[in-house]
Amino acid sequence: MNDPHIKKYIFGDPFETGAVVNDVSIETGNPPYIILDKDPSAITYTMGKSDRVYGLGESVRGINKRGWIYEMYCSDDPMHTETKRSLYGSHPFMIVDGEELFGLFIDYADRIVFDIGYESVNTINIRVGAPDYKLYIIEGCTPDEIVSGFRRLIGKSYIPPFWAFGFQQSRWSYYTSNDVRRVIDSYKSDGFPLDAVYLDIDYMEDFKDFTVSSERFPDLAELVESSKRNGVHLVPIIDAGVKIEEGYDVYEEGRDNGFFCKDENGEDFTAAVWPGRVCFPDFLNKDAAHWFGMKYKTLIDLGIDGFWNDMNEPAIFYSENRLDKAIDKVASLKGVNIGIYDFFALKDTVLGLSNSGEDYSAMYHNVNGERICHDKVHNLFGYNMTKSASDAFKEIAPDKNILLFSRASYIGMHRCGGIWMGDNQSWWSHLKLNLQMLPSLNMCGFMYTGADLVGFGDNCTEELALRWLALGIFNPLMRNHSALGTRDQEFYRFENKDAFRSLLNLRYSLIPYLYSEFVRSVEQDKMMFRPLSFEYREDKFAAACEDQLLVGDSIMIAPVYEPNAIGKNVYIPEENMIAVRMRAYDDYTVEHLSKGHHFIEIPANETVIYIRKGKALPLVTPAACTADINPDTVKFIGEFADDYEYTFCIEAGVQNGESIITKKTYKP
Ligand code: GLC
């Protein structure tokens, strides 16, 4: 690709990550804007006082990333409070928007530290683990142009099947076939729409990938079939670790073919995750990746057409070696009157057993015959697990677009599948984080995404569930998921069922709009969720707005994310926006709002959608599942010119594992 707006520099001997597919020619000399250390593993940039910084995909904190230090390092950390530095994905792309405007992508598969005004308030200091990386500087007249330039570089984002825009229910765990049937029946008998139910680790035999418990799910094929007749797809989890067990074919094949990651001595690297001791398939080894990908066929043959790949940072609970040392340490202190600092050190020894850097450093890959230490490629593990499945699906079932998303990711994986935002908590702050992560992920190519609605860990309240759902209806991946031992949070369990049902119906009315905007964003390398500052370039209030988003071409959202609120302050960034106060898809009032600050009252059973001037919101009649959605039932809300028209993208079949998408234009 020849793109005068993108400049590429190569330092040292970088590992080929696969992030970039439309590469540009290499520049020599000094990159513009930034200062490189001699090494050059450090990059600095001095920000103007009001410069804003965007990007970094799946990260804590706001849309403007300024004022914190982030580490791009795939990490399994469910307690992600605002002071954490890493989450599950590594997305080292950022935009500086202020006195100067440029984008920067560091293509490097180990840890990168982005200090964005943390040590020194006006300084960006980026530290790359080793001076072996590719640097891309992307120029444009607006942040949107920079995003498009970057997205052209990294290739088209994944488009899931249309049904994956329906509402999906999950829990760790629905333990038996009957549990699954009960969830579907409860949603259906209460008149809620539903498109998918998830199978967490307990559908397996002893947490062994590609097995099904004959005791708890004796009839999986029949269950899949009967659920589908109800419009509901079943989506099983696949974990990265393969249980070590004689007689378990996946383990034996992996071992016999040398498909697992190795330790320093060339033996299979072992550690413990859900099944106890496991080996990790070496997803960076092409043969191993192909072998593992083809294993999904076992479940696809039972009618399964969606998967979520988990624990692929990879998460390690402990390695035996380090566990033994910790146990020895504990034993050595028996009866000793230890001081408080020794006690803290002891606690850290135990807590530090999981996801330890020492274990990662002891793990090796075989990349085209070369032995590569895991440290060098850490951020590519989940990406390549998901790529292995995505590649295999085209071989196994080219006539199906199989849903696929992952927990860990790196840029490049956005072409193979979606991601969910990992193990969040039933906290109000994580509702807001869900909102703020959407645009940051879109910048990095991750379009099919969403948070575990209502929160994964911890106990939710009905009020949090309702408010979160009011944002959830806009998440492309709209999944309610919760952890073992937490309060049940299926939407039919709450008192105010009508309010939940109305919101779910509204989602189904919105799906043709959301799907069309999603597809167009992918086709045109745009973002579907945009901060106001990207659109209203000269507006200082829009620039500072951290809790409202433009969703597609027509609308803005400003969800409530605080408890006991009667409404919220909303900034209206243009004259004559129309606030549509919706109680149900066909029960709403409209109000014209002038540009400026407004306090908008929003009772918990209402949703307010803001329609942009001259645009329309197309809504269709809700349906029990996506298969029953009829775009011809569309009605438009808004005020628009006589010649206004809106084009729906419609899934019209599948070819080579991808949806065939047709367009149909409607006039109000
Ligand atoms: C991990 C996943 C979570 C899943 C759990 C059990 O924590 O992130 O979604 O429910 O494992 O499989």
What is the secondary structure topology, with strand pairs?
Layout: E1 6-11, E2 35-36, E3 42-46, E4 52-55, E5 68-72, E6 89-90, E7 93-97, E8 101-107, E9 112-116, E10 123-128, E11 133-138, H1 143-154, E12 167-169, H2 177-189, E13 196-199, H3 220-229, E14 233-239, E15 242-243, H4 249-256, E16 270-273, E17 276-279, H5 286-295, H6 297-300, E18 306-310, H7 320-332, H8 340-351, H9 357-361, E19 364-367, E20 370-373, H10 374-377, H11 381-396, E21 403-406, E22 409-410, E23 418-420, H12 428-443, E24 449-450, E25 452-453, H13 462-472, E26 478-480, H14 497-523, E27 529-531, H15 532-535, H16 540-544, E28 549-551, E29 555-557, E30 567-572, E31 577-584, E32 587-593, E33 596-601, E34 607-611, E35 616-619, E36 635-638, E37 646-655, E38 658-666
The structure holds alpha-D-glucopyranose (GLC).
Question: Quick summary of this structure?
Answer:
The protein is of the alpha+beta class and 668 residues long. Helix content is 25%, strand content 26%.
